[in-house]
Amino acid sequence: MDKFTCPSCGTEFEYQEGLVGRKCECQACGTKFVFEAPSSPPKKNNPDTPRARQPARGGDTAGKTRRRTTAGNQSPSPRTQRSSQEKNTRSQIPTKRKRAPWLFPAAGILIAGAVAGGFFLYKRSKPKTAPQMATAPIPPARPPLPEIATSPPPHAITTPTENFDPPPPRNPPPPSGMYSGFDLTGIRGIVEEIEHSEAPWRKKARERIERYRKARMTIQTLDSNGMPAPGVEVSIKLLRHAFHFGGVITANAFSRNEAAHKKAFSEMGFNSAGFCNSLKYKLNKGKGKKNVKDIIKWLRSKNIYVRGHCLIWPGCGHLPSSISKIVRAKQQDKRKLEETCAAMIAEWAAQWDVDEWDVINEPRGNHDVQDILGYGVEKQWFDIARKHVKNGKKVRLCFNDNRIISDLVKNGHETLTDRILKYRANLERLIQEKAPLDFLGFQSRFATKIPPEIIYERLRVFDKYKLPLVATEFEMRNSIGTEEEKAKYTAVVMTVYFSHPLVDGIYAWSLSPRNDKREIMNGDGSPNLRGKIWLYLTKNRWSTRTILTTGPDGKATTKAFKGTYEIKAKRGNKETTIETNLEDDKTLTIKL
C-alpha cells in the first residue's frame, strides 16, 4: 500500500499500485484526479513547500510528483517519495473494479444499433414534407408603447392596407307610377318574352344592342389629398338617352289642354319631338302658327330636340295654292314654278327653330313638280335649305318617304320591293349630285307583321351609305290586330330598329286619341298597352340605373347605355354630384 495526498485539500490516502493511472475522487473534498506514483515523500512542516500538482499519466513517472517553484527557495526535484503516513491513508479511497476489455465496445455497438433502428422506423412512419428553411429565432416581444392621442393623416384613412373585393353592383329601388316603365300591368307576358326568349333573332338583337348602344364607364374617385378613395358608393342614373325616342305633337290638341299634354309628354320621357302637320307650309296658318311657336319655346326650355316636317311635299294636293296653280296650268311657267318653290323653302327654313328638317317628303309618290322641272331640282332644294336654315349647319337635312322598311312582304321573305328600289335610286342620285343630305327618314307605319329578320335585312340595305336612319312616323295600324297584338309587335319593331347601329331615332307618330286608334296614350294621358311597352323599353329595359362601390384603386366600372348621366359619389358625410355625357368608353375623375 502507498500513500497519496489530495492536491486540493491535502488529505493523505493509501492506495494500491493497481490504481496508478486511474481516475479517482477524494472522499474529503470531492476533487477528481488521476493517480501517479510519487518518487519521494514531500517535506513536512515546510510552509514553502507547495502542494503536489495533479499527477500526469505515464508508466515510468509513477510514484513521483512535480514541485512548484517558490520565491526565495530552491526548486525541489520534480518527483519526490511520498511519506509513510501518506501510504497509510490511501485505504480511504475506494477502489474501482477492473472490467472486461470487450464490455464497452459491445455496449456501444448495441446502443448504436438500437438508435439506428429506431431512426429508420421513425423515417418510414413520418410523411414526406418539403424541406423547410431554418428560421431565425423569434425575438422576445417588446412591451407595448403608450398610445398617443393624435389623429392619423388623411391618406392613412383612405389608402387601403390590403386588397378587398368591392360588393357587386346593385339596382336602386325601382320608381313607381304609370309612367315609370316598371308598371307591367297587362304586358307581363310580352315582357317575359322580351327578357327570356331564346329566338335566334332576339339573341342577335340583344348582342347588337350590347355592342352598339352601350359604352364602358369608369369612375375614378379621389380623396381630398388626391389619393385613390376605396369604398366609395357611386350611383349612376341615366337622365337622357343619346338615341332619339321622340313623340309627335298635334299642335291644336296640345294647345286645347296644354297643362295635361305637357305633363304627359314630360312623363313619357320623350327626349325629342316633332309635329304632325303644323310645320307643313300649306297647313300652318293664323292662330296655329302662334301655337307652334309657343310649343317649340316650351320644348326648348326642356332641352328637347325638335324636328321639322316638312319643307316641301311636291305633290299638287299638298302644295300651297300659289304653287299648285302653276302646276295645273296648261302653260306651265317653269321659271316661276322654280322660283316660287325656292322662296317657300327659304322662308320656311329660316323661320323655325328646329334641329332637323324633312326637306323632301314622299317624293316617290309625289313628284308633280319634278315632272315639270326635272329631278335635278331636288338637289337645289337641299342647297336652299342648307343656306337658309335658322340654326345653320347644326340642322340635319333628311330625305323622307313611306313604306320603305314597312312595305308589304309578298312571298314571305321579300327584302327588296319596288318601293325600296325606287327610294334607293332617288337617294343615289342625290348622293351623286352631292346634295347636303344628312340622314334618311323611313316613316315606318306597319300594317302587317313583317318578320323581324326581314326588317333588319331591309335596314341593312342602306348600310353602304353610312348615313343615320330614323323611323320618323312610327305607328301600328289596326290591321295588326288587338291592342295586345299591337303592343307585342311594337316591341318587336322597336327592338330591331334599336339594335341596328345606324338607326338613331324612333318617333311615335300618334300620341293622343284619334279616330284611327293609332295612339299610344289614352284620353286622360295614361299610357295604353303600346304606351306601356314604349315606357318599359325606354325607361327600364334600355336604361341604366345602378349603384357601384369603388375598389382598392378607387375605381368602379360598368357598361351603360349611351346618353346623359347623373353620377353621385358618396362616402361618409362627403358627397359629390356631376353630370356627364357618355358617347364612347370614358373615364371620369370625381374628387370628394
Question: How would you sum up this structure, described in words?
Answer:
Among the domains are: 1-95, no CATH class; 188-238 and 545-591, Immunoglobulin-like, CATH 2.60.40.1120; 304-481, Glycosidases (TIM Barrel), CATH 3.20.20.80. Strand 3 (23-25) and strand 4 (32-34) form a beta hairpin. It is 31% helix and 20% strand. Helix 9 (321-328) runs antiparallel to helix 10 (334-351) and helix 15 (483-499) packs parallel to helix 16. The chain contains 16 helices and 20 strands.
Mass-distribution shape: rod-shaped
Please indicate the percent range of residues in DSSP E strands (runs of 2 or more).
15-25%
Percent helix range: 25-40%
The main sheet orders its strands as 7-8-9-10-11-12-14-15
Distance between the termini: 105 Å
CATH superfamily of the domain at 304-481: Glycosidases
CATH topology of the domain at 304-481: TIM Barrel
Low-pLDDT stretches are: 42-96, 129-136, 145-162
Assigned CATH class of the domain at 304-481:
Alpha Beta
> Major β-sheet, in short?
8 strands, parallel, barrel
Sheet/helix structural class: alpha/beta
Q: What's the mean pLDDT score?
A: 83
Topology:
Elements: E1 2-5, E2 12-15, E3 23-25, E4 32-34, H1 84-88, H2 103-125, H3 154-158, H4 188-196, H5 200-212, E5 214-222, E6 233-241, E7 244-249, H6 251-256, H7 258-267, E8 272-275, H8 287-301, E9 305-312, H9 321-328, H10 334-351, E10 356-361, H11 368-373, H12 377-388, E11 396-401, H13 418-432, E12 439-442, E13 445-446, H14 452-460, E14 469-476, H15 483-499, E15 503-508, H16 529-541, E16 545-549, E17 555-561, E18 563-571, E19 574-582, E20 586-591
Parallel strand pairs: 5-20, 7-8, 7-15, 8-9, 9-10, 10-11, 11-12, 12-14, 13-14, 14-15
Antiparallel strand pairs: 1-2, 3-4, 5-17, 6-16, 6-18, 18-19
